[in-house]
Amino acid sequence: MNLDDVVKRDTLLGEGQTTVEYRHEKIDGDKGTLEYKNSYGIWETLPFVKEDDEWKIDKKGYADQIEREVEQNSQQFDDMLNRGRQP
Hints:
By secondary structure, this protein is an alpha+beta fold. The chain has one domain: Nuclear Transport Factor 2, Chain: A (Roll). Helices cover about 40% and strands about 30% of the residues. Strands 1-2-3-4 form a 4-stranded antiparallel sheet, covered by helices on one side. Strand 2 and strand 3 form a beta hairpin. The longest helix is centred in the last third of the chain and has 26 residues, at about 60-85. It is extended and about 55 Å long. The chain starts with a helix and ends with a helix.
């Protein structure tokens, strides 16, 4: 199975998206990442893990990454709101 099929199978892309554009593949031992362009044209980082001699999408790593991004965005939003408050 090629990379396009792996990413499509895990429903990370829009239903009408027929190709996967990717860049910056990195491997460090049994972990790896690559950036792919989602259906909105935004580059996202997708983590992989090697299990049983096969590369698989690291779904826990991906969920953790999204959680960190949400927390960062929330903190930035709170900071913006707090700057707008008058003492």
